[in-house]
Amino acid sequence: MIRAALAVLLALAGPAAAQEPPTPIRFARGASSAVLEGAVIRGERALYGLEARAGQRLAVRVASPERNAVVQIYEPGARRRIEEGVLEVEGRALPGAGEGEDARAWSGALPRSGTYLLVVGGTRGNASYRLEVSVR
Prior knowledge:
Layout: H1 2-18, E1 23-24, E2 33-40, E3 45-52, E4 57-63, E5 69-74, E6 79-83, E7 86-90, E8 105-109, E9 114-122, E10 127-135
Parallel strand pairs: 1-3
Antiparallel strand pairs: 2-10, 3-9, 4-8, 4-10, 5-9, 6-7
């Protein structure tokens, strides 16, 4: 009985957590980079929002002890939704940093101004990670 109740609570918590807004990436005064550390459990993803302008250069690197953390980067306007209990992102990913491309690093000029969505997930099992982001 307790095990069943716990399973129901965990199932309900997953989609609710995915609906939370992305964590904003903010740089310290005078800085153009930030380092964020976190962890995701299997099947879940961490979401970050980054305000940037067209033409700025973005560099992103994700590192994990087991080399199983990857990042996707979506242009402004990307939307999140839950499909059968799984977080799905609809929108245009930056070339080389889309779903299934397993990017551990990306750099380049940004095509549009607005809030970019960075999604960190694991390729296998749980993943602890260190996310380095810079905008110049």
